[in-house]
Amino acid sequence: MAQKTIRAVVAGRVQGVCFRAYTREAALRYGVKGWVRNLPDGSVEALVAGEGDRVERMLAWLHQGSPSSRVSRVTVEEMEPDEQFTAFEIRYW
Fold it and tell me: What is the pTM for the complete model shown?
């Protein structure tokens, strides 16, 4: 299966609602690697890497979001992987 890496920026009510923790749980469930972090503008950024179909399932989850979140927009761009990931982590910077 072809590998794929995407960068997604999720806008809406996605900070202060455990969005990053739920994103990490979803990433573990779908078997993808990468990271998620809050951005200063109130959105959340995620870098997701893995097999194409797994990345697509994770992207569908990002559109839905966590139980208390309200996703208004997801901006996605495909990336060339510039680092190797061994897990999916929450970043705090």
Answer: 0.94
